[in-house]
Amino acid sequence: MLGLCRLLLDTEPEPEARNAYHLSLCFMSGMALYLGCLREADACFERLERTGREVVARDDMVRGWRNIEYSFRSLYSHGEPWQALAWAEQCVGTFGAVGSERGDVVVLSWMAQALLALGDVRGAVERARQGVALALRVSPRFGVTFAQQNLATVLVASPESAHRQEARELVLEWMERRIGNRLDLGVAHRVLAQAAAASGEQGEAEARARQACEFLAPFIPFLSEAHSKLGATLLSQGRAAEAREEVERALRELEAMGGEGRVRVELLQVLAESCFAQGDVAAGEQALHDALRSLRARASIIPEPAVRQRFLHQVPENARTLELARQRDIVFGI
Questions:
Q1: How far apart are CA 147 and CA 143, in angstroms?
Q2: What pLDDT, on a 0 to 100 scale, did the predictor assign at position 177?
Q3: What's the DSSP call for residue 156?
Q4: Over the stretch 227-236, which tens digit does the pLDDT of each residue have?
Q5: Of 180, 217, 283, 320, which is least surrounded by CB within 10 A?
Q6: Position 256 confidence tier, pLDDT thresholds 50, 70, 90
């Protein structure tokens, strides 16, 4: 992939190929992000903005996919769900206008993930279900699997047990039919880990989280989520030293990638609690202050007070981070 990326960036398109070339930059940036290659992704984005402004302005397909990739980057690399939602909302209706509704499946999926990260579980489930319905109507098998995978990740984060059971049944069906690639299977195991943890089945949760980490090893943005679930599961079993080691590894991977990461706050929250459990107060408070800095930065760009409050108090890791700060008399302000 990196070889193809270099070849693409070294290419000067003929005039009649400019639309196709800049669409390829969109797709390449997305693939680079999936593998945690932020430098290559940023190079694609830079080329797209520098040489493709006219194309983006007049070509709905290129503009739509460019906004999709910005949405993905905002959420998974920068940890900015409000920005991710804003980019995705700019795509609504774009693909239907050019007869490519498959792109709308991706738009609905990233909208669902952004809403989930903002604490709007109900809205996230609604968008994810719309994505599955659309995929079943217009998209080949990959699009259906992608949409169902997205729905499962949203459902398993719901406080409703019926939603979590539905998520579990969805991913078990893929696995029984051997549907999906390595990324799909890794996400499936992560969903099963979350479902098991929510049901108090910590042994099952740990085993599934470890399998998720194995499958997702090449995909750093998704791997960090698996590490965070494994760390939380270990911590819940009283294995603070192992939990600390797990999340510290994930944080190093994020730092090497150069991104803030969607789950950085959750990783730091688990790290803080692991350190406190070990009696390492200084390290725990450092992790907690780092988590609060990330949380403050993310919340500060949300202009709507009600949405900001929901983000702070309805997203479990955010609420837990604020509770830890309250317990230690640390003032949180934006």
A1: 6
A2: 75
A3: T
A4: 999 999 999 9
A5: 217
A6: confident
Q: What's the one-letter identity of residue 149?
A: Q
Structure tokens that stand for 117 in this block = 């990260």
* Largest separation between any pair of C-alpha atoms in the chain: 65
Parse the chain into domains and list their residue ranges. Answer: 1-58
Instruction: Using DSSP, state whether 159 is helix, strand or coil.
Output: coil
Please list the alpha-helical segments (H only) found in the chain: 2-9, 18-34, 38-51, 53-58, 60-76, 81-89, 94-97, 102-117, 121-138, 141-155, 161-176, 182-198, 202-215, 220-236, 240-257, 264-278, 281-300, 305-314, 316-327
Question: CB–CB of 62/26 below 8 Å?
Answer: yes
Between CA 18 and CA 24 the distance in angstroms is 10
CB 244 within 8 A of CB 268: no
For 3, counting Cβ atoms within 10 Å of its Cβ (0-12 exposed, 13-18 middle, 19+ buried), the class is exposed
CA angle 199, 201, 202 (to 5 degrees): 120
Q: Which tokens hold the place of 226? A: 């698996």
pLDDT digits (tens, 9 = 90+) for 59-82: 999 999 999 999 999 999 999 999
Identify whether the C-beta of residue 79 lies closer than 8 Å to the C-beta of residue 264: yes
